[in-house]
Design a protein that fits this description.
elongated, 11 helices
Length: 449
Amino acid sequence: MRISRIAGVILILLFANISSAVAQDTWSLQRCVDYALQNNLTVKQQVVQKRLADLTLQQSRLQMIPGFSGDASAGYSDGRVASLSDNQYVNQSVFSASGAINMQANLFSWFYQQRTIAANKLDAQSNSFLLEKARNDLAFNVATAFLQILLNIQTVNVNEENVRLTNSNLDNTKKLVIAGSVPESNQADLEAQLAQDSTNLVTAQNNVILSILQIKAYLNLGFEIPFQPEVPANIGNLPLAPLQEMAPEMVYSAALTNYPLVKSDALKIQSATKAYQASKAQLYPSLSIGGNINTYYANNYYDQYGKTLSFHDQISNTYKKSIGVTLNVPIFNGWQQRTTVAKAKINVYSQELIRDLDNQKLKQDIYTAHANAVAALQKYNASSTGVMAAQKAYDFATKRFNLGLMNTIDYITTQSKLFRAQVDKVSAQYDYIFKMKLLEFYRDQKISL
C-alpha cells in the first residue's frame, strides 16, 4: 500500500493542471480550430506574405499613373558673379531661388507594365491559396493533436483499470497470505506488479499533459492556461467514410481540384510566364513623354533703372515650360537584360518542376495514407479479436488463481496480456481514425470529428 500511496501522490502532482481545468469550460474541436485560425503564428506569417504580395500588385498598378515631381532650391553666394541684367561680372552678394514641376509618363514599352501587373496579380492570387493551405493544414494539425489527447486519455483509463485490478488482487492475496493459504511471495509479486502498473499510469498521464502542450502550441494559447478537451461520448461513433470510397486515385483526382497548393503552383507558373514576357519587352525600344515648368529669382536681376525686379516680375520673366518625347533604345549594357530574360525563362521551368514535385509528393502521401488506413483497419480488427481472447483467458485465470490453482507469475502474465491487448485496441482504433481523417482531408480539404 505504501507504493500505491506514493504513486497516487505523483499522479496528482503531474496531472494537476488537467484536474484544475475541470471547473473551466471545455474545448471542443471546433473551438480549438477557430481559436487557432485567429492566433496561430504560422498563419499570421502567411497573412503577412499575402499583404506584401497585395502591396506589390498595388504598386505595379500605380506605376501606370504619370509621375509628377516638384523641386525648389535657394542659395546665397558672395564674390564675382554675372549680373542677370547685362551679363557683366561684378563683385556682390547674391540670393537666388528656383522652382520646377516635372512630369514623366510612359507611352509604349511593349506592354512591360501590363505584363508586370498581370504577373503580380497572379502572384497575389497564389499567396491567397497559400494562406488557405496554411489554414487548412492548421485545422488538420489541430484535429490530429485533439485526437492524440483523446487517445492518451483513453490510455489513461485503461491504465487506471489495470491498477485497480492489480490493487484488488493484491488485497485478496494479502488476506490469503494471512490465512496461510498462499505463500508470501505471491504478495511480493503483486506488489512489484502494482509498482509497474503505477509507473505505466504515470507515463500515460504525462502523455496527456504533453499532448495538451502540443495543441496549445498550435493554438498559441498560454501554457499556463487550463485546457479541458470535450471528450466525445463514444469515439467509435465518429463519422468515417467507408474505406472502399477512398481509393487513392479517386482521392488524388479530387485533391488536384481542391488542394490549395495545386492551385497556387498553377498560378505561380502563370505569374512566372508573365514575368518572362515582361522581361523580354525590355529588350526593345521604349517611348515616353516628359514635361517641365520652371522659374527663377535672384536679387541681382535689375530693371532698366538699376533697381531689383520684383519677385512677381522675375517669376513671370523667367517662367519656362517644355515638353518632349524620349525614345530609349537599348544598345549594349553588358548583356544584362538578356541575362535577366534567360533567368526569367529558367524560372518558368523551375516553377513547373516545383509543381511536378508537389503533385508527386501529394500522390505519394495519398497512396501512403491509404495503405496505412488499410493496415490500421486490419490491425484494429485483429486487436479487437485479441482483446476478447485475452479477456476470456483472464477470466479463467482469475477463477483458477482464486482457487489456488495458478501461481502468481502466470496470473500476472495473463493480466499483462489483457492490458496490452486493450492498449493495442485503443491505439489501433485511433490510428485508423487518424488515417481515415487524413484521406478525407486530402479529398475534401475539410476536417471534422
